[in-house]
TrEMBL record:
Keyword Coiled coil tagged: no
Record-given protein name: PH domain-containing protein
Bias kind Basic and acidic residues: ranges: 205-216, 227-237
Organism, scientific name: Adineta steineri
Signal peptide as annotated in the record: none
SMART domains linked: PH (SM00233)
Key words, A-Z: Lipid transport, Lipid-binding, Transport
Region entry Disordered, spans: 205-283
Gene Ontology biological process terms from the UniProt entry: lipid transport
Residue spans of biased composition, Acidic residues class: 266-282
Length: 691
């Protein structure tokens, strides 16, 4: 580190006020030395020395030139020429303070905060790099020239190698920060052992060289298989090693091969490659159907826990944190998988599970069912489209039961969730129970919902909802892919849903944003991100909604922007605000801006679920009742055991089906295309059969 010097004004006392002093910052010694003038500097006549070990810097937000240094109980006031000069001094002082504090025996809170901020800064740059590479891949896929596409592919492969290295470096830095804290010796040892284990387990001695590939191996569509094959080849030529430092020692540097995952481009990007942590990978031979006995394998209640206690555990209430927020989650992830591995392949620790199945979480899209049924009430296509957008944007805030990102249970194949909602429609004399509907005990003036896990590889959840009194229905399929991104976890929701207004013969196709768990090594928080579309082919109305991720510097969380277009492709409305707060709309024709939807002021309508004791054994709350109860009562070992029982049973049944060449048959949904299922007895089908 080099010296930094210059003139600053220093506050001396009330009588003399601000005085010019010449300062020399010596970061290697951890000292800020000052002189009365440069002449005294030449003579080495020091006026004073400020020790920077453990020092704190303060900034006056109302004055762009002053700042303070607080150390050893004393506070020193300084004034630079302008804001730019002050920033230079602060930057150099922070580096000097960091350098000297890190090399002390005790790791201070000030330096921990600084180190963490630098790690987060690196992670933000990583996310930007990932985004740019994704855009480069999209551009490459549109190229017609094979030579250009080959050049792009080489760049993409190299960039992804860099991404993998940076991801692992960030995790290593985080664990290094914990290593320096003597108060965390026990946890540090476990973290370092986990990191070392995964380095040794997933280490690849060589990275394949892509310079000598044949042209037919370099197209984007074959990039993953090419890299995978080259990695497995023992005779690859001109390979390049990639190394990292061992973080277990402060001085000794043990050169260890850094894992680049089992491929250079994630070999987990294969859309058909899904399995749980202990799954046996089957190549299914599908010829005949399962019996009802196989579908509804009984889960006996071996405990003496009353069903009333199970019901209490399933009550919708804010989730409690069952474990301290520290590096435990990350060390658990590192001990199981490579960085960027699909988290579908990982058995996550029980304490980060949310007390409900993913199928029940899907029902939260109808947390405001009154907004859903209102769609059918409007007379014009424009009004109906605006209401579709309003209902859609109202749906996301209700899905979060905890401020800390948590994961719902992975549904078991054949699992079902059913519920209904009262929407205060005026009862009519012909209100009846819809026995052939998705919820056979609900009436035709309620909104009813059903979801079924229709596939396990990949894990696809199919869902359907309707309100017979309003002649409206929604039908969709959704599955998630989770990626470990260093200090974040990204969950990409794949699929779509179709809202059908039977009286108007209109269909609205909607897509879904991604979700991100940020800062999972510090204080985790959740945000949505990505662009979605809402389209109606018949009327020509479309909407582009952008769920904005928090900017790198400053900026607000949970922001959205949206533009609505009419049949003439012209913009007629803009929407902005917070998807979990207040959203505003401004219309082009009237120039009027108004509150579009206020999630804080609009109460959520509670779902109606029949008692667990009356549910079938494959219904979500009954199937997961033991896991939910033990999580609620903070008996994590028993919750883990109950969860493992269900997962083991699912693997055993899958193995039996494979050995007997049996095909799983869904109960309520029928296959309607590749990786797509639709509800078999939709409202539209029932009405057509009656006419």
């Amino acid at each position: 580190m080099t010296l930094f010097e210059g003139t600053l004004r220093k506050w001396t006392n009330v009588l003399q006020g601000w005085q010019n002093r010449f300062f020399v910052l010596d970061p290697t010694q951890g000292k800020l030395i000052y002189y009365t003038s440069t002449q005294h500097l030449v003579k080495n006549e020091q006026r004073g020395v400020i020790l920077l070990k453990g020092a704190h810097i303060g900034i006056d937000t109302e004055d762009g030139s002053t700042f303070t240094i607080r150390t050893d109980g004393n506070t020193f006031h300084f004034q630079a020429r302008d804001t730019e000069e002050r920033q230079k001094w602060i930057r150099n002082l922070e580096d000097a303070i960091s350098f000297n504090t890190v090399n002390t025996e005790k790791f201070t809170l000030s330096n921990t905060t600084l180190f963490q901020s630098k790690i987060l800064e690196a992670d933000q740059f990583l996310q930007l790099l990932i985004k740019e590479v994704d855009e480069l891949e999209q551009l490459s896929s549109q190229l017609q020239d094979n030579h250009q596409q080959q050049c792009y592919n080489h760049i993409i492969i190299s960039a992804k190698r860099l991404i993998e290295a940076v991801k692992y470096s960030i995790v290593s830095l985080q664990l290094a920060k914990v290593q320096m804290n003597p108060l965390n010796e026990v946890k540090t040892d476990a973290d370092c052992q986990a990191l070392s284990a995964i380095i040794n387990t997933n280490k690849i001695d060589k990275i394949p060289d892509t310079n000598n590939r044949n042209d037919n191996e370099t197209t984007l569509s074959s990039t993953e298989s090419t890299v995978r094959n080259d990695t497995d080849d023992k005779n690859t030529e001109d390979n390049i090693p990639l190394e990292s430092l061992n973080i277990q020692t402060d001085v000794k540097t043990d050169q260890t091969q850094l894992p680049v995952s089992s491929n250079s481009i994630s070999d987990d990007d294969d859309d058909n490659d899904f399995y749980d942590a202990d799954d046996v990978m089957d190549e299914p031979v599908l010829t005949s159907s399962l019996t009802d006995r196989t579908r509804k394998t009984s889960q006996t209640n071996n405990s003496e826990i009353p069903f009333e206690q199970y019901e209490a555990a399933c009550e919708e209430s804010p989730e409690e944190d069952l474990a301290p927020i520290d590096g435990t989650i990350i060390s658990h992830l590192i001990s199981q998988a490579r960085i960027s591995m699909d988290l579908t392949k990982i058995t996550l620790p029980t304490f980060i599970l949310e007390r409900r199945s993913f199928l029940e979480m899907l029902a939260d899209f109808l947390a405001h069912p009154d907004e859903f049924v209102k769609i059918a009430d409007y007379e014009t296509p424009r009004e109906r489209f605006i209401q579709v957008v309003k209902w859609y944007l109202s749906a996301f805030h209700a899905g979060r039961k905890s401020a800390v990102p948590k994961k719902p249970y992975n549904p078991i194949l054949g699992e079902i969730f059913q519920c209904s909602y009262d929407v205060n429609l005026t009862p009519s004399s012909n209100t009846t129970i819809v026995k052939d509907g998705p919820v056979p005990w609900a009436s035709d003036n309620q909104v009813t919902f059903i979801a079924e896990q229709t596939s396990h590889h990949p894990p696809i959840a199919s869902f359907y909802a309707e309100c017979p009194a309003k002649h409206i229905q929604i039908d969709g399929c959704l599955w998630t892919r989770s990626k470990f991104l260093g200090l974040s976890v990204g969950v990409h929701m794949i699929g779509d849903a179709i809202i059908t207004l039977l009286d108007h013969d209109e269909q609205y196709v909607i897509t879904f944003p991604s979700a991100f768990g940020r800062s999972i090594l510090g204080v985790p928080w959740f945000e949505m991100g990505g662009k979605i579309t809402i389209t109606c082919e018949k009327t020509g109305y479309t909407a582009n909604i952008d769920f904005l991720q928090k900017p790198f510097l400053n900026g607000k969380k949970h922001q959205i922007t949206g533009i609505l277009y009419g049949p003439d492709k012209k913009e007629f409305c803009r929407i902005d605000g917070e998807w979990n707060g207040i959203m505003n709309a401004k219309y082009s024709d009237t120039k009027i801006s108004e509150v579009f939807f206020d999630t804080k002021a609009t109460p959520v309508i509670k779902k109606i679920v029949r008692p667990i004791i009356d549910q079938d054994t494959n219904e979500s709350r009954r199937m997961w009742k033991d896991v939910t109860y033990y999580l609620k009562s903070k008996q994590l070992d028993k919750a883990t055991g109950a969860k493992s029982f269900l997962e083991h049973r699912q693997r055993t049944e899958a193995k039996e089906r494979h050995e007997n060449s049996l095909k799983w048959e869904t109960k309520h949904f029928s296959e309607s295309g590749e990786l797509k299922w639709t509800y078999a007895n939709k409202l539209s089908k029932r009405l057509n059969s009656q006419s």
